[in-house]
Each structure stands twice: as structure tokens, then as C-alpha cells.
UniProtKB/TrEMBL annotation:
This is Integral membrane protein. It comes from the Bacteria. The keyword S-adenosyl-L-methionine does not apply. It comes from Actinomadura logoneensis. The chain crosses the membrane at residues 15-35, 56-76, 82-107, 119-139, 159-180, 187-205.
Length: 285
């Protein structure tokens, strides 16, 4: 195991990426455990951070850590391996805190425990998948760098370069088509496995995707086919994904204990300002 780690991670220069990967996963798991314990009102070392009446979200700490880790990674010389490894770990911790509240950044409102908050878990899953593929040595679109040509390659080098550029352009075009068809995972992972891009670009688009809105008329044959595929294949996969998300990150759309207490104390709305505005009875004429 140690020889495998040395050969595949250390000798290939992927040790900083490995530390980023580990720090990212550990920080995300710890953060989710922490917020679930806070939500359940369990006695715990960590509590919500507030400055007066302002709740400080952990995305703020994530931005600070990403700034520290990123600047340190650029400032430190490459010869000093271990400081760069530490900087990569700090950057991974910050990235986990930021992506854990990706939905807050996307919607510009606190949707952490709502259905919209699942976008944060999706973003974390994408980051873990992409980083894991990079650790395995799989490069997006085969971008491994272009070596300098040897004198004997002066004739074949331009031809190979044209073929390479054409291949990258075609794969990017297929990725755009897959994303427009609403196949996010296929489009992203297809950058590493181009065969997935062909599959995603040929298959029918998902209902509600930009491709479907532009090219599938309501009630048309392709639209009905897309709806059938969505109900038969996509819905079970989505339910399984939601189960995995909620197993790892906690169940969304549940009323926290504090909100339940406020609701029981102030009425059905849970908002004193709303519950106090009860309609007054009109005096009899």
C-alpha cells in the first residue's frame, strides 16, 4: 500500500491534490455532522456563530481559508513540498465549507435545510468525483500537456496537433449539448470519459431542460418520449440520490426544534408578527 501511494501519488506530483481531497472530504463530513447536531439541539462543543443578531454562515470561514491556502500556494516556492501540501489542505478545508453552502450563494438566501439546499450536496459530490478522477490520473479531454516536438516529428506534428484540437473541440461541443439536455453528471464526467458525451448527446433531452423547451413542442412525440423516460428511469435514480444525500447530509424540509417550539407557542404560522394579526370581529349592527 505504501509503495502504491508513493508510486501513484508522491512520484507523480499529486500529493498536494491528495491532501486537498482528504481535507475536503473530512471537513465536509465534520461540518455536516456539526450542523445536524446543532439542528437537533444536542449539547455539542460547536454552536452557531453570531455577531449580535447576525448569523455568521460557515461559508465566510470557507472564503477566508480558501484565500489563505490559495495565496500561500502561489507564494511558496515549488521546491518546498510540505508547505505546499499544507496550503493545499487549507484550501480544501475552505472549499468544503464554501460548497457546503453553495445553495446559499446560488439563491442568495438561507435555503440550507430546504429542498433547494440539496444543490450544495450536488456541488460537493461533483467536486469529489472530479478530484477523484484527477487523482487517478484521468485528465479532462486528454489535456496532459503538449511536449516539444523532436526534429523527426516536424512533418507529423502539425497533423497530430490538428487532430488533437479537432477532438477537443468536438468533445466540448458534445458536452455543451449534454448539459443543454439537462444531463449535468453526464456532461461533467464525459469530459473525463468522452464516450459518455456521445451517449448523452444522442439520447433524448430531459423535460424542462433548455433543449426540450427550444426543440420539443408540448405534446409532441419526442416530448412524450422524454416524459416517459423521466418517469421510468430518471425518477428512481433521483430518489436513490436523494436518499444518499439525506443519509450523508441530513434530511431537508424538516422543521427544526426551535421552529417547532415557536409554532406551538404562537400558532400555526410560527411567526408572532403574523399570528398577532388576527382578524377582528365586526361589532353587530
Amino acid at each position: 500500500m505504501a509503495d502504491f501511494f508513493t508510486r501513484r501519488i508522491v512520484e507523480t506530483g499529486r500529493l498536494p491534490l491528495f491532501c486537498f481531497f482528504v481535507a475536503f472530504i473530512v471537513t465536509f463530513v465534520f461540518t455536516r455532522v456539526n450542523v445536524r447536531l446543532i439542528r437537533a439541539n444536542v449539547r455539542w462543543w460547536f454552536r452557531n456563530v453570531k455577531a449580535g443578531d447576525v448569523h455568521i454562515h460557515h461559508v465566510v470561514f470557507g472564503v477566508v481559508l480558501m484565500l489563505l491556502g490559495g495565496v500561500a500556494g502561489f507564494a511558496l516556492p515549488e521546491a518546498r513540498a510540505w508547505p505546499n501540501v499544507v496550503a493545499a489542505g487549507v484550501f480544501g478545508m475552505g472549499a468544503a465549507l464554501v460548497l457546503d453552502e453553495f445553495a446559499l450563494i446560488l439563491h442568495l438566501q438561507d435555503v440550507y435545510w430546504t429542498e433547494k439546499g440539496r444543490a450544495s450536496v450536488d456541488a460537493v459530490f461533483v467536486a469529489i468525483a472530479v478530484t477523484g478522477l484527477l487523482l487517478l490520473g484521468v485528465h479532462p479531454l486528454g489535456l496532459t500537456g503538449i511536449q516539444q516536438p523532436q526534429p523527426s516529428e516536424d512533418v507529423t506534428r502539425p497533423v497530430l496537433l490538428v487532430v488533437y484540437v479537432a477532438s477537443v473541440t468536438a468533445n466540448l461541443g458534445l458536452a455543451v449539448v449534454a448539459l443543454l439536455k439537462g444531463k449535468i453528471w453526464t456532461g461533467l464526467l464525459g469530459l473525463f470519459v468522452p464516450a459518455l458525451l456521445v451517449f448523452g448527446a444522442i439520447r433524448v433531452a430531459r423535460p424542462g431542460s433548455p433543449w426540450s423547451r427550444w426543440l420539443y413542442a408540448p405534446g409532441s412525440r419526442k416530448y412524450r418520449r422524454a416524459v416517459r423516460r423521466e418517469e421510468r428511469y430518471r425518477r428512481p435514480i433521483i430518489r436513490a440520490k436523494i436518499w444518499i444525500q439525506e443519509f450523508i447530509a441530513g434530511r431537508h424540509d424538516l422543521i427544526p426544534p426551535e421552529a417547532r417550539r415557536r409554532r406551538s407557542a404562537t400558532g400555526r404560522t410560527g411567526d408572532p408578527a403574523v399570528s398577532d394579526r388576527r382578524p377582528r370581529r365586526r361589532p353587530p349592527p
